[in-house]
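Q: What structure does this chain adopt?
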Amino acid sequence: MRVLCAFPEAMPSSSSRPPACLAPVALFLALLLHLFLSSQAGDRRPWPVDRAPGLKEKTLILLDVSTRNPVRTVHENFLSLQLDPSIIHDGWLDFLSSKRLVTLARGLSPAFLRFGGKRTDFLQFQNLRNPAKSRGGPGPDYYLKNYEDDIVRSDVALDKQKGCKIAQHPDVMLELQREKAAQMHLVLLKEQFSNTYSNLILTEPNNYRTMHGRAVNGSQLGKDYIQLKSLLQPIRIYSRASLYGPNIGRPRKNVIALLDGFMKVAGSTVDAVTWQHCYIDGRVVKVMDFLKTRLLDTLSDQIRKIQKVVNTYTPGKKIWLEGVVTTSAGGTNNLSDSYAAGFLWLNTLGMLANQGIDVVIRHSFFDHGFNHLVDQNFNPLPDYWLSLLYKRLIGPKVLAVHVAGLQRKPRPGRVIRDKLRIYAHCTSHHNHNYVRGSITLFIINLHRSRKKIKLAGTLRDKLVHQYLLQPHGQEGLKSKAVQLNGQPLAMVDDGTLPELKPRPLRAGRTLVIPPVTMGFYVVKNVNALACRYR
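A:
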């Protein structure tokens, strides 16, 4: 295209104004530039808008709790404990002789005490007062020295100290035998019981073929439980005993089939349905694995699978997670016994209670691999302090949590999972520092940045006590020591646990949750209707 322009005949000077034809040219070029940019609009992103420093990704989370009615109520002994049979490698370990260990156990009361694990599949008991001990490797030649005296004495002694009571169910009464049922607890059962239950397995029956070369299906296992119940009834000491099972493993397809067969036959016979859960293979675990939300959510899927089968045959039947560990293969040193493992453990407690699981039994209280709460030297580990705070502050009534500003808008094809997890309960009635009607929040922040939470609704302008648990020392997430509100936690002496001092926050103050931490927050004097009465 050519642009023609006629100049005037006379030019006053070189410094005079530009010819009038340049205006249409400039307008034409501007139009071309606009059309070109418009055609490229679909391929270009808008220029970023400058933001003031420090404002990026700051979201104030508004939090409220329903205080009228609880959504769930779990057992008073919700957080319970397990002892692994490895402690009887050289005969019964009389843990009551350790004042320090008894003090640690008392701190987690009230609780059930389960004695069991896979090694019980290789324990055999003789009808002798002082049977000989075998010092060979793991196998069916393990014997329990003075089993009758020690179990009864332990039960009575811990009960007198208001500690853990041994749960009267197969994992205590019967699980310690596998080959001969006539060699069971107190040797009170008849010879008929031996013939009937010589092949019965009560721990992870889905693994019976792998461990013993034999298999048992759900229907047969259910019939065995029914017969077991009928044989126990005439014996005075067991006439009121509870029966729990089938204590299956991870609910895969074959395990669900076994549970389905069991519930169809014996669902009404057991007092609660039990299963076990392990999060991750301990041989390949890394510290960052404990921060993966996808891993934390695997438990929720398993709960739904178990509940679906149970509610099909016995709606409302109690369910127990009877054995939970963070990592398999005995755990990993400096990982499953570190602060990082606490994210899985605290989320497990919150998720189970929120979804209606009545009891969770932690494997193990002490002296088993690296998944324990107390190490071989009777030193409390991070998960112990977490459990102690839970026991002191959390009651059995679960409350609904309402938040705003928590969820980010998901991108197409990408699942956004919560890295900030908030649970709410009525504050424990056993804690006399708080009046009834108070509420306790416990919060997990897996983000690498701090999060701010503003209490709203019924929680607005209430006094708050903070119990912030963080790693202590240079190891960071791998630390085996923790600090509460900046102060290291340690036993005062063998008979005294430290005072768990809160940090008071003024009314109306925003809660600031540091990155990659856990904390408990007691909201005082809420006068929540759901929490006034037991």
